[in-house]
Amino acid sequence: MDYDIKDIKLSEKGKLRMEWAEQSMPVLRLIKKRFKKEKPLAGVRISACLHVTTETANLMDALKAGGADVVLCASNPLSTQDDVAATLVDHYQIATFAIKGEDNKTYYKHIQSALAHKPMITMDDGADLVSTILSEQKQLIPNLIGGTEETTTGVIRLRSMAQKGVLKFPVISVNDASTKHFFDNRYGTGQSTLDGVLRATNRMVAGSTVVVAGYGWCGRGIAMRAAGMGGNVIVTEIDPLKAIEAVMDGYRVMPMSEAAKIGDFFITVTGDIKVIRKEHFEVMKDGAIVCNSGHFNVEIDIPALEKLSKRKRTIREFVDEYTLSDGRKVNLLGEGRLINLASAEGHPSSVMDMSFANQALSAEYLVQQHKNLEKKVYPVPPKIDAEIARLKLEGMGVKIDKLTKEQEKYLASWEMGT
Question: What residues does NAD(+) bind to (predicted)?
């Protein structure tokens, strides 16, 4: 088995952490149990480009239990947990290509290694596998029955591909599942982003001004958690509806040009490019802390920051201090990459339980239904979404009401009025 990891000797530590995560993943456990019995993915080659975390490792284990032949590479150079990569290779015999801190050349080499598996299904976290196939590895297209995508950023890329007619196989947007973005994006990103910021800086949020760029589900979660810790939250937006929602949720809303002057922490989570730019760095407070929790490291214009700076030093792990020409300092966290995975451990396993349940069941759905699907982006089927929610409640020991026959009749009729 071919693989490229940091150190196989880390596997025992990773195995224990993987078991700890599994304890909070009851839905995926139930799916794995069924997969082991029914083998719905037997003979299916899956190449996954995901964050190599304890939760991802449990997904890989579930897919393998279902009969899949799985290969994994990292979806971000800083998100890999090296002990987990070692565990997958050593204990589960899953070919893994991921090293925390790998350079761009190694990152794309690992993507090519995953694609050498000649996948029938791709699992993406940012659409790098799909984009590489369509641009460089078109000979793989006949093998593919479909793919899945985990992130907002990746879905944006895939819908653009579909609109332009270049997408050559169906892809299921796991990100659009209610049991994914309502929970993973809001509660997972909200908690793990603040966790990453605090681990990197050990600075006080209470009493600080926290600027959140973007008020999608991730931005909502970050703003909620920052406010809960006593932060004074400012939201920047381009969408008037989301801006109104942020105001009604109790936050100040203003352009980044104004927020840049008063923010202590800046967190981008838009999925777009150059959200914090040269003109914003030029007016920031001395000691401002800037980070990103969107998928790619393009939201902060790092080249502009470097041009403005006369000196750069790594003052703490994951903290690069840039001294500007006038002596002010701007601190960039995690090289502008996903701070919740660069300096922390990503989303809690109880949240990823639902996200990865969607991944597993979507892979099964592709095997069953790919002949009936067109070359476009599909949502997770509502039945799968609802079943995951039901299983999650069951795992949490929560019971809910059921409609009575009379209530069902009332909701299905139009005759009954006031």
Answer: 151-153, 185, 214-221, 237, 293-295, 340, 347
